[in-house]
Give the backbone structure.
Amino acid sequence: MQRSQYLRYVILGLVWWVSAPASAALVYSNEFQGAVGSEWSHTGIASAPNPDYGNTRLFLGEFGNDTVGLSLNGLPTHGLTTVSFSLYLMRSWDGNDTTVVNKDPLGPDTWTLNVAGGPSLINTTFSNGNPAGQAYGGAFSSYTHTAWTPCTAYQGYSGPGPNGPMKGANECYSLGYKFTSLSVTNEAMDSVYELAFTFPHTDSSIMLNFGANGLQSLADESWGLDNVRVEVAAVPIPAAAWLFGSGLLGLIGVARRKARAA
């Protein structure tokens, strides 16, 4: 094999290697079907009143105005981290509604997730439709647990908050939680959001802080977590690497033509 052809193959291999998509490695997963380890600052397990496809739906919770930390150590070398999870919101989340009842404002009811010493991944309000709008957006889901409580029930909403209640939720009224207000007794009120965030991160350890604020008592407003996954991946090399490699290959071609002409 001629030297220039060998060099061509080497450069092609190098360009492919640095430009290949980064594969993610799962470093943590928990569906909370058993005892919770010390990686969590809170370890209580709750059971949703409605079964999930015939099985008991267990989750980490219930929580109120709490910060719940997940601490992981010994992460492999990486440049990106992805955290994904199911967020359960129970009872009368009031979103952006700041109406004062008995000298107590209903909201805003805010849920947050941040990386200790790093970025804030989400800081927004949610509403379970009692009724009140919310800041969190997204497409209305076609999920329908019962004929009278589809996720699309509030598509025409206008009120406090830029979005209608449960906008972007994956499930509505499926957990079985109920709330009695001044006007309605045992009204179904809960929602499930499937959330995922990817962010730059290189440390061998990470602390994720899940939390809420502005809520009333647990019997009024609470939340929980399920199906938590943390994955890490290398940072993909930009497409400019292809241009660099193409330039080198072009120089090789020019050099070969000059050699032949000589």
Notes: DSSP finds two helices and 15 strands in the chain. Residues 240-261 form the longest helix (22 residues).
